[in-house]
Amino acid sequence: MKLIKWLLGGAGAALLGVVSTQVQAQLAPGLTPGNASLNDAPPISAPNWGGAHWHGDVGLAEYAMPNWVSASNSAKKSTVLPYLFGQTEVFFARVDTFGIKTLPIGWGHLELAGRLSFEGETVPGLAPRRNPLPLGLGTFQETPVGGFFLHAFHDSVSGGQLWDFNYAAEFDWHGLGFYPQLGAQWRSARYVNHLVGVSASEALHGPWRAYSAGASTTPVLALAVQMPFSLPLSALGWAPITSSSSFSPSSWSLLMEWRRKWADAAMGHSPLVPRRVLDDGMLSVVYSFE
């Protein structure tokens, strides 16, 4: 238990206790979204370590990733990286969050997870703010009314904690997939100070006033849109090696996402944070594996 409290903090350990009580729940067989309710649990089983088939999307994306800190290039920070959203029987990848599934819980699993973070920044006159390295526990609950994502991380760089909650729904309209999302991120004071705090010694030798932040809660609103298209492979001179190939030219799609975050007082009152609203986004071409 001491290890759990160090990893997640006191509230994170309490959260784990609440979630873990579901492990012994009776699983109801044969449920589908049409006849299921949130009072029932699907037939979720323990991960099969021999299963290696990937279900989900793979692609290449350009990410616009500004952060809260006012640096010369922060407003224009973007990069091209692979895009992954899917899972095997054991492993999962969800854009910036990766890990392995363990115990079956409710509509998903208890997961060991890590997050790829680009929140660090170099500010003239201040010590470099390294990118955090959040590691911890989480779960993805895929219910009939949408997906619920819950994570509790410990950051080994700042020594602080990051918890987040996100809800995602799915709607289809004229062949387009819409994925509205609503959530919140909580960062402990040590985590926030690592990103936007200014120590007394830094203020003494630089242009910034000293600032010590408290814990921060950041609301998040997002919308993703997925537009399928068919790739004309024959026109490009390529064809599957065999007629039974599982590679389908109609499994391609264009994926766009916009995300907005609002800084609270703990984050927004820092002299390093010039704006209280932050928008980021992504544009990706992906291939879907069933």
What does this structure look like?
The protein is mainly beta and 290 residues long. It contains four helices and 13 strands. Strands 1-2-3-4-5-6-7-8-10-11-12-13 form a twelve-stranded antiparallel β-barrel. A hairpin with a 2-residue loop joins strand 4 and strand 5. The radius of gyration is 21 Å and the shape is globular.
User: Average pLDDT across residues?
Assistant: 82
> What is the CATH architecture assignment?
Beta Barrel
Number of helices: 4
Given the helix and strand composition, which structural class is it?
A: mainly beta
Low-confidence stretches: 1-6, 18-36, 71-75, 240-247
* Helix content percent band: 10-25%
As for the CATH topology, it is: Outer membrane phospholipase (ompla), Chain C
Q: Count the strands?
A: 13
Order of helices and strands: HEEEEEEEEEEHHEEHE
Structurally, the number of domains stands at 1
Major sheet description: 12 strands, antiparallel, barrel
Fraction in beta strands: 35-45%
Text of the CATH class: Mainly Beta
- Basic shape: globular
Give the neighbour order of strands across the main sheet.
1-2-3-4-5-6-7-8-10-11-12-13
End-to-end C-alpha gap: 39 Å
